[in-house]
Amino acid sequence: MLKGIPKILSPQLLKVLCEMGHSDRLVISDGNFPAESMGRNTIVIRCDGHGVPELLDAILKVFPLDTYVEKPVNLMQVMLGDKVETPIWKTYEEIVTKHDGRGKAVIGNIERFAFYDEAKTAYAIIATSEKALYANIMLQKGVVVDE
């Protein structure tokens, strides 16, 4: 056990977060995301039984967002014609704002198939049991600065 580390962050996940360097990307996927097929050439970490918001909040306690890009946080854009509401995105805005002073301005959207392409090159994909649709989120790691 360690002090100050959110309990939801497993040893495997902490190791991966530590290994990641500046500009590496991390996908936290919902339960419908094809994590295993997208992650054939990357690390896939299973976090079954957990949702994206609780993992996002815990990760952002230890994971700096990139300050060298305009949108270090990206969501999977809803496909044209899909009549899907995305209230979870508001939750993401609140969590990101809590951990990054730039607030929701750092959050962008990536078209669904472009998101898949980006996910294939991410450092790691975290597979969750999140039931919300279009709940996938991609984070780009920044630099840890002594405070």
UniProtKB/TrEMBL annotation:
- Keyword Isomerase among UniProt keywords: yes
Choose any GO biological process term that the UniProt entry carries and state it: fucose metabolic process
Q: Which UniProt keywords apply?
A: Isomerase
Q: Mind listing the GO molecular function terms for this protein? A: D-ribose pyranase activity; fucose binding; L-fucose mutarotase activity
Q: Which reaction does it catalyse?
A: beta-D-ribopyranose = beta-D-ribofuranose; alpha-L-fucose = beta-L-fucose
Q: Which InterPro entries does the entry link to?
A: RbsD-like_sf, RbsD/FucU_mutarotase, RbsD_FucU
Any keyword Isomerase? yes
Q: What Enzyme Commission number does this protein have?
A: 5.1.3.-
Q: Name one Pfam family in it.
A: RbsD_FucU
Q: Out of the domains of life, which is the source?
A: Bacteria
**Protein name stated in the entry:** L-fucose mutarotase
Please tell me the species this chain comes from.
Clostridium oryzae
